[in-house]
Amino acid sequence: METVRFEDLGLRPQILRAVMEMGFEAATPIQARAMPIIMEGRDVIGQAQTGTGKTAAFGIPLLEKIDPKSKKLQALVLCPTRELAIQVADEIRRLCRFMHGIKVLPIYGGQDIGKQIRSLKGGIQLIIGTPGRVMDHMRRHTLKLENLHTVVLDEADEMLNMGFREDIEDILKEVPEERQTILFSATMPKPILEITKNYQKNAELVKVVKKELTVQNIDQYYYEVKAKNKEEVLSRLLDMYNPKLSLVFCNTKRRVDELTSALQGRGYFAEGLHGDMKQSQRDRVMNGFRNGKTEILIATDVAARGIDVDDVEAVFNYDLPQDDEYYVHRIGRTGRAGRVGKAFTFIVGKEVYKLKDIQRYCKTKIYAQPIPSLNDVSAIKADKILNNITSLIQNEDLRSMVEIIEQRLNEEDYTAMDIAAAFLKQAMGTTEADGEKPYDFGDTGAEEGMVRLFINIGKKQNVRPGDILGAVAGESGMPGKLVGCIDMYDKYTFVEVPKDRAMDVLHAMDHAKIKGKEINIEPANHK
Ligand SMILES: Nc1ncnc2c1ncn2[C@@H]1O[C@H](COP(=O)(O)OP(=O)(O)OP(=O)(O)O)[C@@H](O)[C@H]1O
Ligand SMILES: [Mg+2]
Questions:
Q1: Which atom of ligand 1 is nearest to the CA of 52?
Q2: Which end of the chain, N or C, is less surrounded by CB atoms within 10 Å?
């Protein structure tokens, strides 16, 4: 599709000006396709990948339709979480900041209801709310929906799912029949799509089709870990990749609290976010994350959908999400608006099968990665520090420092190399390779320095002794090719590899190749 410019969409000049000042150069594909249809007044179901500008795709047409002269409530956007309602209201406010007489208000639970009621009396035309609080106002008759001409369900599949469906139906009953109803999400499972006709009339499905449901700019990796090692592996990955901001997802509130304390204890700038916290606390945490003071946000799925924070460079599935859709939304918190990102998923034991389902659902590949050893982490850290020092040596006047060091060298009997090494150690902080024990495979009957990895090869695979097994660990970033020679012993098939590479090979088995063909291998009892 050719690029569509906002200038060509026939928008009000005030909105066009706001869009330009927000730095949007061209409309994204979902904006280019959905906005004209919404502006015609049609019902629309919009589906496009995470971070592709769906908010503006419905926000701009909403603002086009609002009559600033009428002080009645004209449009309602419903969102599944409070944080999302606040964010969507902010984005819409930015879009209408040059329009006079438009009032936008987020309403959500946990906020002083009296204050909300006073604001509502001021003539609000557009509300962005969570269903619970909207219903609360309906019951108090502090919110009149009789003049609404447009309703948007952001994260529509979630809103029409079990947890919210009844509330949505109760709200829609109060809205005039001849309304325009707009649904948006990055995912739209079939069963939900089938019921949308109960809420819409002759809706147009606008789907920006891509092969994968997930964004291609996100590198997706998984790690097989033992439950008790998750915290350590997370720390190593955080140290190794050092993302500007990270979002870590846990499956329960309690695990969020536990991991938050644990990471804080290890010295990270981490905060937790979940539904049992007071709203003031939730706001504080979210603001800290948005302005970069909190580098690691540990959250339940409250933060999985819609949340848009620029510098999130990594998402961790500390626990594997329960639903396939949630994998898409969680990792979609990174790699937004064309940026790159990384997604790391931890799996324990049999979860590998669930991960296969997720990959099938997303039509994407998640690559196995060996758990970085402390040596890997140290090497990368040292590299970063030494690179920084290079620029210091090149750009700073270090003569007075050199004098201090020379003086010391005259007084003590160690070398400049000793001093440099000590400084490096100090700069690297706590992660040290000392004390790490290599995994003990036991005696596998292999020669000195080698390990036999016993493997299961599917019956139909035409594999013979002597065939070369190549297993590539990950597509990028990790050490390359590892090979071994297939052998058989009684009824066991195995491959012999050097002891220090055995763990890496084991983790890379998932995409092993024999004679150039990808085959399915599972590591068997390697003890
Ligand atoms: N045309 C555009 N050009 C550049 N950036 C844009 C454009 N439209 C929106 N953006 C920016 O892209 C980011 C992602 O947009 P948005 O939050 O609307 O994504 P989304 O499609 O709703 O994602 P999700 O499915 O996660 O909710 C926002 O920061 C937004 O300001
Ligand atoms: Mg969104």
A1: 21
A2: N
251-298 pLDDT, tens digit each: 999 999 999 999 999 899 999 999 999 999 999 999 999 999 999 999
Cα of 89 to ligand 1 centre, how many Å?
14
Measured in Å, residue 130 CA sits from the centre of ligand 2 at 14
Q: How many CB atoms lie within 10 A of CB 346?
A: 22
Instruction: Please state, in angstroms and rounded to a whole number, the distance separating the CA atoms of residues 29 and 417.
Output: 57
Q: Which has the minimum average pLDDT: 195-204, 433-442, 455-464?
A: 433-442
The two tokens of residue 501 are 């590479």
Beta-strand runs (E) in 40-100: 44-47, 75-78
Q: What angle (nearest 5°) sits at the alpha carbon of residue 391, between those of residues 385 and 397?
A: 120
pLDDT value at residue 460: 63
Angle at 507 between CA 502 and CA 512, to 5 degrees: 95
From the CA of 418, how far away is ligand 2's center (Å)? 54
| Ligand 1 atom, smallest distance to 332 CA | 26
pLDDT for 213 beyond 60: yes
Q: Is the CB of 28 under 6 A from ligand 1?
A: yes
Q: For residue 4, which ligand has an atom nearest its CA?
A: 1
Contact 372, 240 (CB under 8 A): yes
In degrees and rounded to multiples of 5, residue 12 shows phi and psi of -60, 140
**Ligand 1 pocket, residue 364 CB under 6 Å:** no
**How far apart are alpha carbons 185 and 155 in whole angstroms?**
5
Closest ligand by atom to 24 CA: 1
Where do the H-state alpha helices sit in 122-176? 131-139, 156-159, 162-173
Q: Which ligand is nearest to the CA of 333?
A: 1
- Cβ of 18 closer than 6 Å to ligand 1, yes or no, is no
Q: Which atom of ligand 1 is nearest to the CA of 91?
A: 31
Q: Which ligand is closest in space to the CA of residue 28?
A: 1
Å from CA of 248 to ligand 1 middle: 21
Residue nearest to ligand 1 atom 3, measured at CA:
24
pTM for this prediction? 0.80
Task: Report the residue among 24, 152, 301 best suited for mutation to probe ligand 1: largest number of ligand atoms under 8 A from its CB.
Answer: 24
Which of 161, 152, 167 lies closest to 91, judged by CA? Answer: 152
Q: What are the structural domains of the chain?
A: 6-208 (3.40.50.300), 218-372 (3.40.50.300), 375-433 (no CATH), 450-523 (3.30.70.330)
Residue 149 gets which letter from DSSP?
A: -
pLDDT of 525 strictly over 50: no
Spatial distance between the Cα atoms of 384 and 393, rounded to a whole number of angstroms: 15
Residue nearest to atom 27 of ligand 1 (CA): 306
